[in-house]
Design goal:
Pfam families: Big_3_3. The chain is mostly beta strands. The protein has four helices and 37 strands.
Length: about 450
């Protein structure tokens, strides 16, 4: 006996047709003496079983086959006695199941793509003739809530189970767009995956930022504006919506079409989406912006993004910070060290400043240190044997950079080092020595000549 399909997801369970071939090797073969016993049952009740097909012969080798194609639990046994009365070795009965039917999954007490502002307690039930508990994976995930396994009241049903969730909490944090996903796999490996998407919206609209907009708002500070893309989701259609912004205390109403566009989706009986694209040209001026999206739905709920704590606040800063070093000049200082002060200011805030000596960063001060020092950072210049080139480079929160004027300063307690690094004094000293030496030479030469003439 041989089978063409031995790929069982679980031992004994197959999700495709299975054909068995009976082979008898006998010279005195008599097909009438082959006794094939096949039974078929579905959920405990007998169903029509297939029969062994006709025999084909090739010398002493005789074969016949039977295909198991219908969903059923099968047994298959075969006996044979030849013309001389010799019985074949006893064959151990085969038992297996063919199941080509996917599990059934049904969500209840919730509608796909529905918006809900009352009781929201969805459920799901699933069943299969060859159901197995380990093949069940049901999760729920919100746009602002992590994926979790579904929990609720579990009830056994015929060939499966039913789960009924409790009502979602009636608080603003629970409002979200949720997706419930059910993946059910039976013993034969058949799999059904279904999902239902719905919103819990008892407190007005939900707002979702595009990935680019969310990153832009997370950064808070920028040196150039970007288009803002925001999607508003509501249980009902909106009867009014408008957008405005405040810039350093001044409010401006934006015009649909020219200042922003709106793309609407969602039909009757489903949730409504309004995707606003607010053009970057509205935010060319420097300053602190706060954008408000106002709306009112058919249920007369008035709302805006700020009420839902989806703030659209950011700062446009195109001006580099100011960096001025004081306490040192183009000079030399007779000391082991010299204190200088880096004076910093910016339209918004300085993120960090680097002290650079001879082209290398020797110290970095972060925003908190700068703010604590009131924008005046003190730095002690250590002594050196030659003049040092000192400057400071600052970066503000928007990414603007600037570098201070460079100062060339000699700090040393050595008089000799100061002397040899003082070019005018050094040159003057050399010239003085040359003149004195020349005068002495001239004096002795003239004197010698006078003595010789006498």
């Amino acid at each position: 006996m041989s089978y063409d399909n031995n790929s069982a997801a679980t031992p004994g369970y197959f999700n495709a047709n299975r054909t068995a071939t009976v082979t008898v090797n006998e010279h005195n073969f008599n097909a009438a003496e082959v006794n094939a016993q096949i039974t078929a049952a579905l959920q405990g009740s007998g169903v029509a079983a297939p029969g062994l097909g006709g025999w084909s012969t090739n010398g002493d080798v005789h074969t016949a086959s039977v295909t198991f194609s219908a969903d059923a639990d099968y047994t298959f046994d075969v006996d044979y006695t030849d013309l001389a009365g010799n019985a074949a070795a006893d064959y151990t009965q085969d038992k297996f199941t063919v199941d080509k039917t996917d599990p059934e999954v049904e969500f209840f007490d919730i509608e796909d793509k529905s918006a809900n502002n009352g009781t929201v307690a969805p459920g799901v039930k699933y069943s299969d003739v060859n159901y197995m508990e380990s093949g069940v994976d049901i999760t729920i995930k919100g746009a602002k809530h992590d994926k979790t396994e579904l929990s609720g009241n579990r009830t056994n049903i015929a060939n499966g189970e039913s789960i009924k969730m409790e009502d979602f909490k009636h608080d603003e944090e629970t409002d979200d767009v949720y997706t419930m996903t059910a993946v059910i796999k039976d013993k034969a490996g058949n799999e059904t995956e279904k999902e239902v998407m719905f919103s819990v919206n008892r407190f007005g609209s939900n707002y979702i930022f595009s990935e680019t907009t969310e990153k832009f708002l997370d950064d808070v500070y920028a040196n150039k504006p970007k288009d803002l893309v925001v999607t508003e989701v509501n249980v009902d259609s909106l009867v009014f919506n408008g957008i405005s912004y405040g810039l350093d205390g001044t409010k401006k109403e934006l015009k649909a079409g020219s200042d922003y566009t709106v793309k609407q989706s969602g039909g009757e009986g489903s949730w409504k989406e309004y995707t606003y694209t607010i053009k970057k040209e509205n935010f060319e001026k420097e300053g602190r912006y706060s954008v408000t999206i106002d709306s009112e739905d058919k249920a007369t709920n008035k709302m805006n993004n700020k009420v839902k704590e989806c703030n659209i606040d950011f700062v446009i800063d195109k001006t580099p910070p100011t960096v001025v070093i004081t306490g040192i000049e183009e000079s030399s200082y007779r000391a082991d060290e010299r204190e200088m002060t880096i004076n910093l200011s910016d339209n918004t805030a300085v993120k960090c400043v680097d002290v650079i000596i001879d082209g290398k960063s020797v110290a970095t001060y972060a925003q908190k240190e700068i703010e604590k020092a009131g924008g005046k950072i003190s730095y002690m210049i250590e002594g050196a044997s030659e003049p040092q080139k000192i400057e400071a480079a600052a970066l503000d929160m928007a990414g603007n950079e600037t570098t201070s004027e460079m100062h060339k300063v000699l700090v040393t307690s050595s008089v000799w080092i100061q002397y040899i690094n003082n070019t005018p004094l050094l040159i003057g000293s050399i010239l003085g020595i040359v003149l004195v030496a020349g005068g002495l030479i001239w004096f002795f030469v003239i004197r010698k000549k006078k003595e010789e003439s006498k």
